Each structure stands twice: as C-alpha cells, then as structure tokens.
Amino acid sequence: MTSRRSRAIAALKLVAASTLALALFSVAGAQQAFPSRPVNVVVPFPPGGGADALMRILQAPLSQAWGQSVVIENRPGAAGLLGADVVARAAADGHTLLMTATGGVIAKNAAQFSPVALVSAAPYVVVVNPTLPVNSVRELVAYARKNPGKVTFGSSGAGAASHLAGELFQSVAGVEMLHVPYKGTGQAVADLIGGQIDLMFAPAQAAMPNVRAGKLRAIAVTSLKRSASLPDLPTVAESGVEGYDAVGWFGAFAPAGTPPATVNRIAGDVDKALADPDIKQKIMALGTDAAGGTSEAFAAFLKADNAKWERLIKERGIVVPN
Q1: CB atoms within 10 A of CB 7
Q2: Which CATH number is 39-121+248-316 given?
C-alpha cells in the first residue's frame, strides 16, 4: 500500500512539474521579444491613397530594422473602420499593426488600440477637376453659392478626413455641396480626374502627382498656415474663408494591450526612419511632411484631434459607419 501511495505521489509531482514547465514555456513564448516573425501592416484603404503611399516608403527601413519582412495588406471599407477592426481583434504582440488616417481611429473605437507613432500630420489639398470654372477658393465659394447642392466633392468614405474637411468647409464658408463617398482616396481621385466629381479635399500624397501631371488643379491647402512642402499654395483661410483649419494625420497603431516595451520599440524605429534624410525627401516629394515622436505624444495629439471632429460630427449630424 505504501509503495503504491509513494508511486502515486511521485506521479502527481511529475504531472505538476510538467504542467508548470509547460506554463512557463507558454509564458516565455508569449513574451518573446518583438519581432519574432514577419510583421503584417493593415492599411484600411485601397492602394494609391495617402496611408498606403506612406507605408510603402516605411516598408523597407522597418524591415531592415526588424530583420523581418513587413507585409502590407490593404483592407478597404467603411472609411478605414473595417481594416481597423481586423487589427483590433489581432494578437496584441506587435506583429499586426494598423497604418491609418484621420477617421480610422475615432472616439468610439480608440480604446481598442495603442497609439504607436504619428507618421505625418499635414494639410490636405483642395483640388478640382480642370473643367470646373474656379481657380481659387473665393471663386469656388461664389460658384457653390450660385449652384447650391450641385457641386460634388469626393472622399475616401463617410467620416474620413477628406469628408470631414469638406463638411467643415461648408460650415465655415456657408455653402452647400454634395458629398460622394468612395471606398478609398485612390478611387475618388480617379473619378475626380474623370470628371465624375468636381473637387476633393485630398491628401497631398494622392493629389500632387496628378496636379503636376496637369490632371487636376490645386487651389489651396487646408491648414491655417502655409505648408512647408507646398509653400506656393495659399491656405483656405487666407483665401477668404477665415478660421478654416483642417489637418489630416497618418499614424501607426497596435491592438490594445500590446506591451509598452513593444509599442516603444516600434515607435522608436518609426521615428528613426522618419528622421532619415532620404525618407524625409521621399515623403516631402509627395507634398507632405514627416512627423515622428513618441507614442505618448501621438496619444495626446489623437485625443485633441478626435475631440475637434466629434464636435463637427454632432453639429452637422454626420453619420459615421459602425
């Protein structure tokens, strides 16, 4: 009896030791240093938009910094919210990230993410189809007032920065235009070039190559002060719509709960890439400016920006996709 009891106790100890070892192994695996495998970056818009262009510039330097492949996955829909939801449900280990724009992470879903890095915060460009008989913001306001509800402006989706910038313009300028939402900036720009819509408040990355090619006409930037990368373009505010100020941002996020050390590692590597002169030049060539900084600074920026747009959404009764 004693022998059987001793063998049973020994067996239980062996099981307990094995269970503990397995648990410790699992914890060690879960806490494995970032990155331990390829990093997937979800861009919640089709190729050709501002977020996509910026991420493709960062792809090579981040892959080099991490010693892993950086895979870009375009998941368009609902002004960036569909792709954002994919990342929100991913493992919080830094291997699935979100590269999005204003409107992709807002008050109602911000708690699902850890802000990582502000990549760019720059004005949008007011661009019109060359057939529209306006050459300035003043002429656009006059034309819109003579044709209420007939001037169409496109966006990358309801609630996106390109939509909100247009809504703010209508509110401050006292005009009525028709909003036409698309699944991404690239599609909207294509229709703007084709004449299906009249104008856009577009990211410089998507707008300026077409302006330089003579396919579109740029009439202003949306910031309160002139852009360093587009100094010859006047602001909307100095063109007669006083007080107008809209800046679009692009930034990287991780799922909520991602370890702070991982968030800070990614933020530091993005910041280092954005400080590289060659990367800066590539981003400036798109008509925008590189940002950078800490994850904490990005979180503070995001909180203030979301509050501004939430006020506009309520004031104008804008319906944002769930």
Answers
A1: 10
A2: 3.40.190.150
